[in-house]
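Section 5.1 Outputs to date
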Amino acid sequence: MFVDPSMQCNGKWLTIATVDAAGLVHEARHADGPLHTCGNKDQTVAEMGAFGVEYLFIVWVADYSAEPQAYRDYFRWAAWKLRSSGGAFCVECSG
């Protein structure tokens, strides 16, 4: 199930903290050295560039966090968007 990011769940707006944390993970990976390898994108998730670690962080939150199900569904949608055509990777489904 894909969820509109503007939705409310149990009267609370979708948390921004995890989205901000994903951005920090992305930028921290740049600080560790790797830049994007395909223009402003990464070639694949497997190369573990900035978008690769951001993607895996979002997947981890979706799979293992104690967030309400609607939030976890949103993070699955966000991860799917990173992997889909026009997303963060030049090779859509590799690694």
